[in-house]
């Protein structure tokens, strides 16, 4: 009995050790992923691509594939990371994903108040410039919506802006540049999807009204043709009736002629002829 309990305990211990090993592997993998993410964010080029890839992933999940264009070139030659084809109004709206994350990284890496103040100054300058660039590049009267979206690939950056740089958020609103995080971007795109759906329903309703108008014309033409056909049938019935009357008359005449005794006529004619000659 005791040996069985010992074996059972050893078995449970082995299972726990295996679970610990698996957890350790997961932690090691997660650490590697974090280091990879840090490598991405430390390189300006890969950092920009990271924001672009994240935006693309959110857009493709939220919107129908025919309702947006990635890397869309505008009439001014500028290329928007994403252009959502909203109906007018408001019109197509551009989304930019090239947020200057290096300014945020400097803010996060500050070791003292002086570094923090300098990093905050750089952050404010970088965000202001980015707001101005988006407004100038992606808001085109008569072509795009009267506003654009600035996509932040990090909820932490979004929270930092709203908590400590609310003046930048207000400046974005004034410039008609709305700042969104991954979460708020998804919510915004869901609203856009509802707008697109409503617009397509209106388009379908217009198409249905057009088809109903064409159907009414077809039915009206069909009624006219049925009336014409009925008139032709009535005329044909009248003609057939008259033909039958004529045929009946001709038949009666033919029967009377058939019943006529032509031999009697011939004998009468021969007896009459000599008497006439005698008279002459």
Summed over residues and divided by their number, the pLDDT gives a mean of 81
- Low-confidence regions: 30-37
Order of helices and strands: HHEEEHHEHHEHH
User: Numbering strands along the chain, what is their spatial order in the largest sheet?
Assistant: 1-2-3-4-5
- End-to-end Cα distance: 168 Å
Describe the global form.
elongated
Helical region count?
8
Q: What structural class should be given to the helix and strand makeup?
A: alpha/beta
**What is the rounded Rg?**
48 Å
Strand content: 5-15%
Biggest β-sheet description: 5 strands, mixed
Helix content: over 70%
- The total strand number stands at 5
Number of domains: 3
What does this structure look like?
The protein is an alpha/beta fold and about 280 residues long. It folds into three domains: about 40 residues; about 160 residues; about 55 residues. The protein has eight helices and five strands; from the N terminus they run ααβββααβααβαα. The longest helix has about 80 residues. The protein is elongated, with a radius of gyration of 48 Å.
């Amino acid at each position: 009995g005791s040996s069985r309990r010992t074996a059972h305990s050893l078995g449970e211990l082995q299972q726990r050790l295996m679970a610990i090993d698996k957890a350790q592997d997961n932690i090691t993998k997660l650490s590697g992923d974090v280091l990879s993410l840090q490598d991405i964010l430390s390189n300006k080029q890969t950092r920009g691509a990271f924001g672009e890839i994240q935006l693309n992933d959110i857009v493709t999940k939220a919107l129908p594939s025919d309702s947006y264009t990635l890397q869309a070139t505008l009439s001014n030659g500028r290329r928007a990371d994403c252009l959502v084809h909203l109906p007018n109004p408001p019109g197509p709206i551009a989304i930019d994903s090239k947020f200057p994350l290096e300014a945020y990284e400097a803010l996060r890496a500050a070791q003292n108040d002086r570094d923090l103040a300098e990093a905050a100054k750089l952050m404010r300058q970088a965000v202001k410039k980015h707001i101005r660039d988006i407004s100038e590049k992606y808001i085109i009267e008569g072509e795009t919506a009267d506003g654009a979206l600035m996509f932040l690939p990090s909820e932490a950056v979004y929270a930092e802006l709203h908590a400590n740089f609310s003046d930048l958020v207000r400046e974005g609103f004034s410039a008609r540049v709305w700042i969104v995080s991954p979460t708020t971007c998804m919510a915004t795109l869901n609203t856009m999807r509802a707008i697109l759906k409503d617009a397509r329903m209106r388009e379908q309703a217009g198409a249905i009204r057009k088809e109903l108008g064409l159907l009414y014309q077809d039915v009206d033409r069909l009624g006219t043709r049925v009336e014409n056909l009925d008139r032709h049938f009535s005329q044909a019935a009248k003609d057939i009736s008259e033909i039958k009357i004529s045929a009946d008359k001709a038949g009666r005449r033919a029967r009377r002629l058939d019943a006529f005794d032509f031999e009697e006529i011939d004998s009468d004619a021969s007896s009459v002829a000599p008497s006439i000659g005698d008279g002459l």
